[in-house]
Write a structure and sequence with these properties.
- It is built from 13 helices and four strands.
- The protein is α/β, with parallel strands linked by helices and about 280 residues long.
- It has a single domain, classed as 3-Layer(aba) Sandwich (Rossmann fold), CATH 3.40.50.
- The longest helix is centred in the C-terminal third of the chain and has 24 residues.
- InterPro entries: P-loop_NTPase, Sulfotransferase_Stf0_dom.
């Protein structure tokens, strides 16, 4: 953009500050998607699960779908694009698919979103303004190292759910686990900063809490959406998935700690860490 280059002074920290301010000032703001009336009809509430890879989000998604609390899949990029040949790549079209296919008969729709996916969608679409009657759930996992191990393993094998088949056997890679750990930390930081900066209220849940008390936590989500869960009082919620953590996971944890644990160092690395843009 010519005007931005004109406003960029030569050299120095002050020059960079002025240039960044000018870029922010003249940046084209993404617009919300106009939702057709036939899609808006019957929408009671929306739930955005703000999370990161391997946080237990697939398990929560299965529970929510079974409870009539929407169908929170990765509607914006990610696995939908890879798994469905006819799935649209335009984020504006993805919004409409999320509102239609992500909705339960209760009128609640749900979306699962990683910070890295959000950063891409936000370049062209004002996503929060496009999703009607939106509520926020912040899903995290206390065991960050376990999460990093799980993500590294899933990317190697292609098995992100227990119902899927592995493409190849997993192999220990300490550097990949360390990288996954830093990326998860960045995902979490990006969500926490965005929610705080915008003063957005949210329901905070952890994977471990959901494993321990699935029904109680589903009821919290239902309360957030001003609805009720579809389970009978005596029934036990089931996501249809099994825990993939096993002896291999435990072995990788032990090897990683023996290789990387060093309490004398505070920073994970000396690389300059940047948030998603």
């Amino acid at each position: 953009m010519v005007v931005l280059e004109f406003l960029r002074p030569a050299g120095g920290v002050f020059a960079e500050t002025v240039a960044l301010f000018a870029m922010h000032l003249f940046r084209k703001r993404p617009l919300p998607v106009e939702i057709p009336p036939d899609i808006l009809v019957g929408i009671k509430a929306g739930i955005l699960i703000c999370t990161s890879p391997r946080s237990g989000s697939n398990h929560l998604a299965g529970l929510m779908a079974a409870a009539g609390l929407g169908n929170p899949l990765e509607w914006f990029g990610g696995r939908r694009v890879l798994e469905l040949p006819d799935y649209p790549r335009d984020p504006r079209a993805q919004v409409l698919r999320a509102l239609k296919d992500g909705r339960s008969t209760s009128g609640v729709y749900a979306v699962k979103l990683f910070a890295s996916q959000f950063s891409q969608v936000a370049k062209t679409v004002d996503l929060p303004a496009s999703l009607p009657r939106l509520r926020y759930v912040r899903l995290t996992r206390r065991d960050l190292l376990g999460q990093a191990i799980s993500w590294t393993r899933a990317r190697q094998t292609g098995r992100f759910r227990s119902t899927e088949t592995s493409r190849q056997a997993p192999r220990y890679d300490g550097a990949a686990i360390a990288e996954s750990l830093e990326k998860i930390a960045l995902e979490n930081l990006a969500w926490d900063v965005w929610l705080a900066r915008n003063g957005l209220p949210f329901l905070s849940l952890t994977y471990e809490e959901i494993l321990e008390a699935p029904r109680a936590n589903l009821e919290k989500i239902a309360y957030l959406a001003d609805t009720k869960i579809a389970f009978e009082p005596a029934s036990v919620p089931n996501s249809g998935l099994e825990i993939q953590r096993d002896t291999v996971s435990a072995e990788w944890r032990e090897r990683f700690l023996s290789q990387y644990s060093d309490t004398s160092r505070f920073l994970a690395s000396n690389r300059r860490i940047r948030l998603f843009r």
